[in-house]
Amino acid sequence: MKMSSRAGYLWALLSGVFLALSFPIPGLSILAWCAFVPLFKATDGAAPGKAFNLAFTAGLAGYAGMLYWVNIVMTTYGKLPLSVSFALYMFLCAYLALYPAVTLWLVRRGENAGISALVSFPVIWTGLEFVRSFLLTGFPWESLGYSQYRTLPLIQIADLTGVYGLSFLIALANVVIFRVLLSVSRKGATYPVRGLIALLVLMALTVAYGFGVLSRPESGPEQQVLLVQGNIPQDVKWDPAFQESTVATYERLTRLGCREPGTLVVWPESALPFFFQAEPVYAARVRALAAELKSPLLTGSPAVEKEDGLVRYLNSAYLISPQGAVVGRSDKLHLVPFGEYVPLAKLLPFVNKMVAGIGDFSPGKSAVPLQTDGARLGVLVCFEGIFPEVARSYVAAGANVLVNITNDAWFGRSSAPYQHLSMMVFRAVENRVPLVRAANTGITSAIDSRGHIDGMTPLFEEATLAAKVHPGKGGTFYNRFGDVFAILCLCGAAVCAGYPLKTSAKGKTKKK
Q1: Is there a catalytic annotation at residue 50?
Q2: Residue 285 and residue 407 in one domain
Q3: Per-residue confidence (pLDDT) for residue 350, from 0 to 100
């Protein structure tokens, strides 16, 4: 019996709800494995155009539920009217919804040409996820595989395939589950024997690999780390009148938490809301604190430099030695559009940044690890932690500990800080190095090289987190060769897209 149009869209909406619920919060990761089953039911036998519309609906619902916090950023800190904020939010969700829409359109075209969805859906979905990671500066926020960040035996394959291996596996499972249910409920439907065998084999290999990695204890010297969460309100952060209280807060928390000389102390992104390199009084106090505690101290602060007569502002991290000397600076490489700079500013003179305090930032030039006595630090500043290639470049350059300094105050008490953290887990596993994270308002945490989260601070509270990490060795397949698996999937997607055109052309030739 043919499904009504209204019922089809209700099934599509259910897929969107399942997809949103798969990610933090609430993080019902099990739903990811069947999130697309209602959508497959809605699009079963549908024309490609209809499948596009239904999948767009599912994607719109899913991303709207996942990214609702964008409105908090735009209304609270961007000072946009709610109507304007909502319009921009829906525009972003509509852009992201195009990816599942195009995927289902290509899958249905492929099925009409004889390509099974068991092949086409996981390949196309994964390939387009990869495209989303770099197109229009990239927005790989919560790719499908990130939903499993707590399932340690599954995520270990990220050191081979990145997060895309998990996305592929989940996408394949959705098709198999739908085909199994269809074979039970519909007379004459074929049981997906080969698809089920392929899924079970891949799952078994993934889990076996994961348990093999988890059974190997971490080795090597330990590095004591103290992560400091100052909880400085965003609305006063850049007010010069609060500089004294800001510095005093970080001094107090650091003295209370640092019990052992040589402990690596990490303060968050822009913990010092002034130009550290040009501020004599407060900068001297911070250097003196490192010398007093006999511990290296990493802190976020903007930087300024002149190049060819032009002034460049950078979002940076400074490393201070246990002797109180500044021994290195790391500059943010991947900037936040509309947060740290305005894309196409000359064409959009009416658009302003949402971050107050400084003019447009410029990106850093290269990934340069910062050297301490116990570790070589690759610093990921806020948003750039969601880009695997940035973490890879630091580890390839010699970093054996990744440090994510961030200010997630923008997100309020929403799901976004938890979603942000979930992606950091994969940076550690992909490169087999620990990742420590200091966030202004939380979530501050430490993650070992197998993705285990060792402590999480509460949101919007002053806190410190002490942890011990084992600097990693890197050298994983993913670190050396990057997104080979995702690129292969993208090539497979291109084949799936081109094959129906080829068969259509052959059909026309035969008719002639």
Answers
A1: no
A2: yes
A3: 47
Q: Across residues 270-275, what is the average pLDDT?
A: 94
The percentage of residues in the chain with a pLDDT greater than 90, rounded to a whole number, is: 84
Residue 382: active-site member: yes
Q: Is the pLDDT of residue 425 over 70?
A: yes
**Identity of the residue numbered 387:** F
Q: Is 332 a catalytic residue?
A: yes
* Total domains present in the chain: 2
- Angle between the 117-132 and 82-112 helix axes, to the nearest 10 degrees? 150
Q: Exactly one of 111, 142, 269, 384 is catalytic; which is it?
A: 269
Put the strands of the sheet holding 223-229 in their side by side order: 326-331, 310-320, 297-307, 264-266, 223-229, 463-469
Dihedral of CA 275/280/282/286: which sign? positive
Reported confidence tier of residue 235, pLDDT bands at 50, 70, 90 = confident
| Number of Cβ atoms within 10 Å of the Cβ of 375 | 25
What's the mean pLDDT in 97-105?
98
Q: Give the Å distances, CA to CA, from 228 to 248, 404, 454.
A: 13, 12, 15
Q: What is the pLDDT of residues 132-179, one digit of tens each?
A: 999 999 999 999 999 999 999 999 999 999 999 999 999 999 999 999
Residues 448 and 488 in one domain: no
Structural contact between residues 16 and 157, judged by C-beta atoms closer than 8 angstroms:
no
Tell me what pLDDT residue 474 has. Answer: 87
CA count, 13 A, side-chain hemisphere, 108: 22
129 lies in which domain range? 5-215+483-511
Are residues 179 and 321 both part of a single domain? Answer: no
For residue 328, give the CATH number of its domain.
3.60.110.10
Nearest CA among 293, 297, 230 for reference residue 439: 230
Catalytic residue among 34, 258, 382, 489: 382
Q: Compute φ and ψ for 361, nearest 5 degrees.
A: -85, 160
Q: Out of 34, 93, 111, 332, which one is annotated catalytic?
A: 332
Place of tokens 């992909």: 430
Tell whether 246 and 388 lie within a shared domain: yes
Residue 351 shares a structural domain with residue 447: yes
Query: Could you tell me if 463 and 503 lie in one domain?
Result: no
pLDDT tens for residues 111-126?
999 999 999 999 999 9
